[in-house]
Design goal:
Aspartate Aminotransferase, domain 1; alpha/beta; three-stranded antiparallel β-sheet; Aspartate Aminotransferase, domain 2; single chain
């Protein structure tokens, strides 16, 4: 599904040198590379503030903590997405309020959000799934109308650009009150371990986030808030600084692979290629097909027999997971999310895909279709 070794080999000398510099100085925590990466990421995102942290889940948790939301408040999020969003909401004693998703873009269905807003609603978790932004124009309108916080989970869409109706452009994660991302190795901008970041344009909120991520201390042994310990270590920051220089190139490579898939699969009635949100660029963290009238699981088995990897993101919607059924949800509540979990399949998508590999993957899909239809 990913080729991290191939990616590393292309920038090996830079990566090795960056790591060696950290080893030479032994500044493994909060070394100069952390500050440098932070500043360069701020510039790339056009964000006023970036606070690196330990991982993407920490980023979500710290962001929610910093917003000072009352315990028991409700937070709206999509039912079809990775567990980290619901996890941090529940851990902090908030109530996850799920909403179904758009059947084409897989992002939260903005037309269903307002009916879920109550006097206990405090925030909307906007998840930019698979590489493109949710409908942030409508989400921000709802935030203003109902005085809600907006947290953007940008773990899968770093580098995507959203265009508002008035022509204004903003990078994914910088539109709401606070954005978060993950640097998990397989992400579009990935380190060689764990890492994450939080970003905001609000200076006061940024200071609170920074304090919370550092045990709640503004200066050593002076604890202003109840915080956590979540740091991006210097080795990972050094690696990310090298990779950040290549991020636009990585995005272009993913978009080129996606275009190849699009051309190969368009017009096949049993397959729906990824639909694009017209207001957002797509950076293709995943290339996810939706199948119609065929068995997704049998297709996956057929690909596996040809040594073609594939993944199911996600096999079950969040509201039906054991950890969240206690919030009162049942099968049938979110039919689109439930259907997607039975009918989506993600093909290999990474920066090192070449035409020969893409041709073989397409051949694998077509062989199954030709054999069965």
């Amino acid at each position: 599904m990913v080729d991290l070794l191939g990616q590393y080999e292309k920038i090996k000398s830079e990566i090795d040198q960056a790591i060696q510099e950290v080893l030479n100085t032994t500044a493994f925590i909060n070394g100069p590379q952390v500050k440098s990466f932070k500043e360069n990421l701020q510039q790339y995102l056009k964000a006023n503030h970036v606070i690196p942290c330990g991982n993407g889940t920490d980023a979500l948790q710290i962001a929610l903590m910093a917003l000072d939301i009352k315990k028991g408040s409700e937070i709206i999020l999509p039912a079809f997405n990775y567990v980290a969003t619901a996890e941090v909401i529940a851990l902090l004693d908030f109530k996850p309020v799920f909403v179904d998703v758009d059947p084409d873009t897989f992002n939260i269905n903005v037309d269903q959000i307002e009916k879920k807003i109550t006097d206990k609603t405090a925030a909307i978790m906007a998840v930019h799934l698979f590489g493109q932004c949710a409908n942030m124009e409508k989400i921000m309108e709802l935030a203003i109308k109902h005085d809600l916080f907006i947290i953007e989970d940008n773990a899968q869409s770093i580098g995507a650009v959203y265009t508002f109706n008035d022509g204004k452009k903003q990078t994914a994660g910088t539109i709401g009150h606070v954005g978060t991302t993950s640097f998990f190795p397989s992400k579009n901008l990935g380190c060689m371990g764990d890492g994450g970041a939080i970003y905001t344009n609000d200076g006061e909120l940024a200071e609170t986030i920074q304090v919370m991520a550092n045990h709640g201390q503004k200066k050593k042994y002076a604890y202003e808030l109840v915080g956590v310990n979540s740091r991006l270590d210097t080795v990972q920051a050094a690696i990310l600084e090298v990779k950040l220089k290549n991020l636009d190139q990585y995005i272009a490579a993913r978009q080129k692979a996606a275009a190849y898939y699009d051309d190969a699969f368009k017009g096949i009635k049993e397959i729906q290629i990824p639909k694009r949100n017209s207001s957002s660029t797509h950076v293709f963290h995943q290339y996810t097909l939706k199948v119609k009238g065929i068995s997704r699981n049998e297709l996956q088995k057929s690909l596996e027999s040809m040594k073609i990897p594939s993944m199911i993101y996600y096999p079950s919607p969040l509201h039906l997971q054991n950890a969240y059924v206690g919030f009162g949800y049942k099968e049938g509540d979110f039919p689109v999310a439930e259907s997607l979990c039975k009918n989506v399949i993600s093909l290999p998508m990474h920066t090192e895909l070449d035409e020969e590999q893409l041709e073989y993957i397409v051949e694998g899909v077509n062989e199954y279709l030709n054999r069965n239809f």
